[in-house]
Amino acid sequence: MAIYSYLQGGLGNQMFQYAIARALSEHYQSTFSLDRSWFNAPQTETTPRPYQLEFLGIQAVAQSKVNFPRKPNRLMRVLQKLPSFGPIVYYQQNAFTFDAGLLNLNGLGQRDLFLFGYWQAFPYIEPIRFILQQEFKTKQPISDHYQSYLESIRASEAVMLHIRRGDYVNSPSAAKFHGALSLSYYQEAIEELLLNKPNAHFFIFSDDLPWAKEALPKDLQITFVENALQADAAAQELQLMYACKHHIIANSSLSWWGAWLKEDCGGFVFAPNRWISDNSLDLSNLLPAHWHRIPA
Fold first, then answer.
1. Residue (of 115, 125, 119, 29) closest to 72 by Cα position
2. According to the model, what pLDDT value does residue 82 have?
3. Secondary structure of 177-195 in HEC code, one letter for each residue
4. pLDDT value at position 92?
5. Whole-prediction pTM
6. Intervals of the chain under pLDDT 70
7. Hey, which residues does 163 pair with through a beta bridge?
8. What mean pLDDT value characterizes the chain?
């Protein structure tokens, strides 16, 4: 058998789609490939993103040459349950739901498994967390531009504070579906953190630093991480996020990874109590129980 994972979205989403395939390949002792066709097709109402996993130290993975099957209808889903009926094509319904059945597929044997979704539920990947901590480091050394930030982070009570705006503000479809977090979310998280860590030094990561510089309190120990405008900038900044002791994340998969794979297992993590505009969703498989949820 082989596992095929369909990639889409930015670096954080690509990491989730790699991680689910990596975890299932360990679980089923199989090979896996990545379908990168999304990056070569014109996108409508979706923010275009480049393929960026190549900047991380992941294991050598084949690029899938197999045409990804379309979403199965109800009859096909029933037939797929038969042990000898072709490949299993799994289109995820909810990115934040953990489906234990995916780890207990009957009669998988020589059948292939195709995965389409975002897979933002940490129980899938918890068993390989240590592997991912190694593989999600940058392939290239930290650049001179980011090295000084890394040294400051390691020498302080460093807090990663991530502000995602960009398409969450400027793209009507992304703004409707995701929505940027309010300033009050960050203010409350900062206040709570300072009650416990009065010497906290905040390192600000954002795709809208001008807004952050204007909006955030001026009386903090604060460093704004300027983007290096290099191809692997997101991957490099992710390494700085890992190195921070505490984390205030946005509703963004990139900062989620910065907090979930952080080097220091202690420390505080503050996360918004909603991830997308639909605030009725159960986020218990996205946000670990020990993370502090703040109204957003």
1. 115
2. 61
3. HCCCCCHHHHHHHHHHHHH
4. 92
5. 0.94
6. 42, 45, 72-85, 107-108
7. 206
8. 91
Q: How many CB atoms lie within 10 A of CB 240?
A: 22
Q: To which H or E segment does residue 109 belong? A: none
Q: Which residue has the tokens 């793209």?
A: 171
Q: Which among 23, 16, 7, 21 has a CA at the least distance from the CA of 112?
A: 21
Summarize pLDDT for 208-232 with one digit per residue, the tens.
999 999 999 999 999 999 999 899 9
pLDDT for 80: 64
Report the chain's terminal Cα–Cα distance, integer Å. 43
DSSP-derived 3-state class of residue 263: coil
Nearest-angstrom CA–CA distance, 50 and 7? 11
Query: What is the C-alpha separation between 180 and 203, in angstroms, rounded?
Result: 19
75's tokens: 């009859």
The DSSP symbol for 60 reads: P
Instruction: Report the C-alpha gap between 124 and 117 in whole angstroms.
Output: 13
Helix (H) or strand (E) holding 214, with range, is helix 209-215
Q: From residue 78, give the alpha-carbon distance in Å to each of 6, 15, 83, 94.
A: 22, 30, 11, 19
Tens-place pLDDT, residues 24-50: 999 999 999 999 999 988 677 678 899
Q: What is the dihedral of CA 18, 20, 24, 29, to 10 degrees?
A: 20
How deeply is 29 buried, as exposed, middle or buried, from its count of CB atoms within 10 A (0-12, 13-18, 19+)? exposed
Tokens in use for 287? 């946000």
| pLDDT for res 85 | 66
> What is the spatial distance between Cα 12 and Cα 23, in angstroms, rounded to a whole number?
16
Q: Which of 267, 242, 50 is nearest to 134 (CA)?
A: 242
Q: How many whole angstroms separate alpha carbon 75 and alpha carbon 91?
A: 14
